[in-house]
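Thought: the user wants the 3D structure for the chain below. I'll pass the sequence to the structure tool as-is, report back what it returns, then summarize two notable features.
Action: structure_tool
Action Input:
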Amino acid sequence: MQIIPDEPELAPDLTEDGDMDGRERKLRDVSASAGAPDVSADRDATTAKGDELAALLSQHRGERHIIVMQSFPDPDSISSALAHQMICSRFDIQCEIAYDGAISHLENIALVELLKIPLLRVQDNDKLPSYQGSIFVDNQGTTSGLTERLISAGVPVLAIVDHHELQNIIEAKFTDIRTDCSATATMYAEYMEGGLLRLEPGDVEHARLATALMHGIRSETGGLVRADRRDFRAAGYLAEYVDLSALLGILSSQRSRHTMDVIHKALKSRSVRDNYSVAGVGYIRYEDRDAIPQAADFLMTEEYVHTAIVYGIVVKDGEREFIVGSLRTRKPTLNPDSFLKDALGGAAPGHYYGGGKREAGGFEIPIGFLAGRHDEEYMTWKWRLYDEQIQRKLWAKLGVPDERSE
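Observation:
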């Protein structure tokens, strides 16, 4: 019989006051040497960035700023913009939260309506020169039609706060781009916990903000399924202040009929090869653009599929046409940002048609010379032309033979 000796009892490392600080310090050192996440380093970096942002805002007291979201804002973008607006109010800075596209996803509409978030849809340039600074939240200027318009109006870029891959399109006085964060909402929750805006229990405005940020984190992490320690820590901080009834109301929103039609088109047209699902859905109304990422999410529910790409031609009457696509993936070796940039290229060096973050990406390609409504035969021919080109580029980059060309 093998005799296993008792483990020696570990004597606690007591301080002069008789507490356990010495032992705890040794355990922390052991954890760090074993590769455990350095939470204190995260907090130190966030505090430093928060202090830097506070210093910038202090220099611009009393000004009027525009917070720029992506053209079609999602919950992460909307909630982060609201957080920045409320932080700025502490510095006597008046901010308007702006976008130039549309909000069509019913869940996003519920978020804005239930939490009474004031948003400005910018349709003309008359008002732009009145702003003394612009703040880009949850984007770096590549997914907003306001970027060039604000630059032309002479509005300086003061700050960029984002969690997507670095785009190098615009420069700002303050930049906080963290690709290791799952959501920009997580970054703002960390700013607030660090002291930029202290939430108070019972404060209606703070409950509104906490609820929005919680939804932003939830939506970016697949209901916290893909959340990392920073997202969980941020959600834990916000949980005390969240209006649960409002959050449930937002989450109970249903899909619109137009969205269901787009999902149906994606199911009918999809090509599934080597666990990739690619679908073109034809022409989409400008107001229904948000149906494309929802269709990509839906295709991801099919058995064995690890990557889904859905795209279509978005038509805005009397204005431009462009191809819009969304990518979703669970494949660890597929980086959406580099994949879309390599596969689809761009209009000029450094100005790519697509980009993304971990597990998700999107692209927008202007139609240009062939834009415009004509007879049915012409519209059918135009869709087939672009559908063929997109499919060829995607399958080639994925390294999968395009069956349609065989």
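Final Answer: Structure generated. The CA atoms of residues 241 and 273 lie 46 Å apart. The domain at 257-401 is CATH 3.10.310.30 (Diaminopimelate Epimerase; Chain A, domain 1).
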